[in-house]
Structures are given as structure tokens and as C-alpha cells.
Write a structure and sequence with these properties.
The protein has ten helices and 23 strands. The chain is of the alpha+beta class. It folds into four domains: 46 residues, no CATH class; 149 residues, Jelly Rolls (Sandwich); 176 residues, Protein of unknown function DUF2961 (Jelly Rolls), CATH 2.60.120; 76 residues.
Length: 465
């Protein structure tokens, strides 16, 4: 019996080590299963799985939680050792057509009884939703899925936010969601799926995520906001680069989301990434050649794409003007540091662009971590209101969605049979054309069609109210 207990304990420890040790575990043991992405489905463990969710404790179906302005929702308080494997949310604010909650809500996570959080980011930014705008995409670590369809390709009434970063803890985990906005969040559904563990190996770092912004960046040189692919100016220290992450201790940089609001109608991304490890001077051991190479695209991407590890998942306009979001996850190739890391990127060649930058960095490290910079207040996190054609098109689409909700409510309440002409004009012709125009980034045409749709629907509503 004793030998069986020892064997069980050894297998459990091997399972935990495989879950967190990756290739290092293969190197130590030669276990081929540890190298497989499917190994967790195969390997038996002494742990059990559990979920904390917003389900209706009465046994009913009122599963969502509300969050009033200034309030904090305690998502989970898990005791002992374990590892979070998956987190899911869907959120609806007071106006379903608006997504202010992306920047109003702040997600925090605390490990092992710590007082200061290891994760502190605006809710939307944690899930790659920079600029306070919904963008659907699929990656290995973060996925944002559609819900109930509404008119147009920009958003849906409901959105599914998912993250698959493993989040280990030895002495408890606490997760919270705080509403820093001035409007209530009427409904928040969530799942936090985790695995209990007997212990977490000493070599396993804790998950961290931090939001940063610089709005705007300070331009260097005389050629502000001009494409200087030929390389005017020399950056030989990285001192003016945008800083994505600064951390102290031993750890692994696991990836980041980067958001840019570009105020020029030209390519902004001749910006090298420079990652300084353990206090090394320039040139760093990790030095890149431009934004497209970092995020896995071809030269000067203006077409959105999303892959397992890299993506330009949001590109607003074909001429690079306006909002852009991108990501890089270091899953099989984490950037390791023993004492410190300073991850940076140029904003234009030699930092010659003055644009709005924001980011969320993900990393694992041994605690304690260095204090985070103070999170900017919600007013400063919000994106600027300007003349971005994409933003103007989204505003028109929101108006159309509101009119459609009013139309469908009227038709259902009064049991009206919609006229064939209206159905053919709006639902058979214009709405598909609006979707196609939005996807093609033909925003003036889309705005015009939205106006025609709105006028037709409002005429019908006025005649039947």
C-alpha cells in the first residue's frame, strides 16, 4: 500500500510538472507525452476539477450578476492549491448597443493571499478589445466569440470572452471585477474553471497581466508622423521606446496585446521591438525589425487576421488611419529572464510617431513582483473621439441596431405583418449590403445605406405607433 501511495504521489507530481514545465520536463524525464498539446487529456492526476460561476443559487435561471457603479463583484475566492484553466464572461450593459463596460470594468487577480494584485487591467483590454470596440478573433490563448446576431458585422448583442492562460496558485486565488464607470452593468455571466492540486512545484511562476498606456507618444526628430522607411535617425539606446512591460525577478514573458490609434494616413509600424533582459545594455539580445515581423504578418498589414500565436486582429482603415490592435503570444518560445525584463517597441522608426499606444502584457514570474504603475482613471483610458471613418461607421450601425430593436418590438407587440416591399428593401437587400460594405471597409457607402435603412424603418414605425 505504501509503495502504491508513493507511486500515486509521484505520478501526481509528474502531472503538475508536465502541466507547467513544458519542454523542460521533456528534457528532464524524456517523457514523450509531456511534449504533446493533448497530454493533459491523457495523463491521470490526483487532482479534481471544479468551476465557480454566476449560476442562480436558488436553482432558477437568473444566472447573471449586476455591478453598480463603484461596486466590486467578487468572482471567486478559491482556497489551497490549484490552477485556473479557463475563464469565460459575457456582459451586457444598460444599452446593449454600447460596450462602455470594456473600459469601465477592471479585472484583478490575487494569488497566495497577496494584497496587491498580480493581474490588473481593464476588462476589454485583457481580452484583446482595445479602443473600447468589440473585435471577434480566435487565438490559442484568448478567444472572443459572437453571440446573438444583430444587424451589421461590427458586433452582436452578446459576446463570449474566453482566456486559456493557466493560472497556478499554492495558497488560494481571488478574482474580482470592479465597475469604475458611471453606468450600471446589468448582467455579467461568468465561469472560472480550475483544477485542484496537492501542491505547485517551486519552479512554477505565477500569472501576471498589466495594462499600460501612453497617449500620445512623444515624437523624436523633425519628421513627426511621417513614414521614414529609409531610416532617417538612429535609435541606439531604446530610451524613447514605448514600454510594454517592466518586471523584476525571475520569469517568462508570455505575450501581449498592443493597441495603436494612428493619427496619420500612412504606415506607422516601422518600429522595432527591443527586449532588454537582466539589465543588458543596447543592443539587447532580443531585437526585431518592425511591427509586421513581431505579429507575424506580411509587410505593412492593413487586413485583419488572427492565428494561434500572432495577429493583427483589428485594422480599422485601409490607409492605416485610426485604430489598430495586434497580439503576440510566446507559448512555445517564452522569453526568459532571471533578474529583470524591459520589453519595449519603437513608435515609428526611431520613435518619430506621436500616436496613442496602450497594451496588456502577460507574464509568469516568481513572487514577489515589483509594484505596478497606478492604473489610469477610466476617463484617460477611453479612446479619443475623432473623425476615424471606422468609428463613424460604427456609430451609424449602432443607430440602425437601435431602430431595428424598436421595429421588431413593435411588430411583435402589435402582431403586424411587415409589408413585402419593406422586407425586400431592408432585410433582403440593404442589410446584407451593409455587412459586405463594412467588411470591405467601404465606410461612406455603408453609412449611406444605414441612413436609407433607418429612414425606411422609422417611417414604418411612425405609421404604426
Amino acid at each position: 500500500m505504501r509503495s502504491r501511495t508513493i507511486l500515486t504521489a509521484a505520478l501526481a507530481l509528474a502531472t503538475v510538472a508536465a502541466a507547467f514545465g513544458g519542454c523542460a520536463h521533456v528534457a528532464r524525464t524524456g517523457d514523450p507525452l509531456a511534449a504533446s498539446v493533448f497530454s493533459e487529456m491523457v495523463r491521470l492526476s490526483s487532482g479534481t476539477s471544479a468551476r465557480i460561476s454566476s449560476f442562480d443559487r436558488s436553482g432558477g435561471n437568473i444566472d447573471a450578476r449586476a455591478i453598480a457603479p463603484g461596486d466590486t463583484l467578487e468572482l471567486a475566492d478559491i482556497p489551497d492549491a490549484g490552477c485556473i484553466r479557463h475563464i469565460y464572461f459575457t456582459v451586457i450593459g444598460p444599452d446593449p448597443a454600447k460596450v462602455d463596460y470594456l473600459q469601465d470594468l477592471v479585472l484583478r487577480m490575487y494569488w497566495d493571499g497577496e494584497i496587491e494584485p498580480s493581474v490588473e487591467t481593464p476588462f476589454g483590454d485583457f481580452f484583446g478589445q482595445g479602443h473600447g470596440r468589440i473585435t471577434f478573433f480566435r487565438s490559442l490563448m484568448v478567444t472572443v466569440n459572437e453571440g446573438a446576431e444583430m444587424a451589421g458585422a461590427e458586433t452582436t448583442l452578446t459576446v463570449g470572452f474566453n482566456t486559456y492562460f493557466p493560472m497556478p496558485f499554492e495558497n488560494g486565488a481571488r478574482l474580482t471585477l470592479t465597475n469604475e464607470g458611471d453606468q450600471p452593468v446589468g448582467a455579467c455571466w461568468y465561469h472560472i474553471d480550475y483544477e485542484t492540486l496537492e501542491r505547485v512545484p517551486k519552479h512554477v511562476g505565477r500569472f501576471h497581466a498589466q495594462y499600460r498606456q501612453e497617449k500620445p507618444t512623444r515624437p523624436v526628430g523633425a519628421l513627426a508622423n511621417m513614414n521614414v522607411c529609409s531610416g532617417e535617425g538612429l535609435n541606439i539606446d531604446g530610451a524613447e521606446n514605448y514600454v510594454i512591460l517592466e518586471a523584476e525577478g525571475q520569469g517568462n514573458f508570455a505575450g501581449y496585446f498592443l493597441n495603436v490609434e494612428n493619427f496619420a494616413h500612412t504606415w506607422y509600424g516601422e518600429g522595432d521591438d527591443m527586449i532588454f533582459i537582466d539589465g543588458a545594455a543596447w543592443p539587447p539580445s532580443f531585437h526585431g525589425t518592425g511591427s509586421e515581423e513581431i505579429f507575424g504578418g506580411g509587410a505593412c498589414p492593413n487586413i485583419a487576421y488572427a492565428g494561434p500565436y500572432t495577429g493583427f486582429h483589428h485594422t480599422a482603415n485601409k490607409d492605416y488611419f485610426g485604430t489598430i490592435s495586434m497580439y503576440r503570444f510566446y507559448v512555445n518560445d517564452p522569453i526568459r529572464f532571471r533578474q529583470s525584463i524591459r520589453a519595449t517597441i519603437e513608435h515609428g522608426h526611431n520613435n518619430n510617431f506621436s500616436n496613442d499606444y496602450s497594451s496588456v502584457a502577460f507574464w509568469y514570474q516568481a513572487e514577489p513582483h515589483a509594484p505596478f504603475e497606478k492604473l489610469p482613471p477610466v476617463e484617460e483610458r477611453r479612446r479619443r473621439k475623432g473623425d476615424d471613418p471606422h468609428v463613424l461607421a460604427c456609430a451609424e450601425l449602432a443607430k440602425l441596431q437601435a431602430t431595428l430593436r424598436q421595429y421588431h418590438g413593435l411588430v411583435a407587440a402589435k402582431k403586424i405583418e411587415p409589408p413585402v416591399e419593406l422586407t425586400q428593401q431592408v432585410f433582403d437587400a440593404l442589410i446584407p449590403e451593409i455587412k459586405d460594405a463594412f467588411l470591405a471597409k467601404e465606410y461612406p457607402a455603408m453609412i449611406e445605406k444605414c441612413g436609407i435603412c433607418n429612414d425606411a424603418l422609422r417611417t414604418f414605425i411612425a405609421a404604426h405607433e
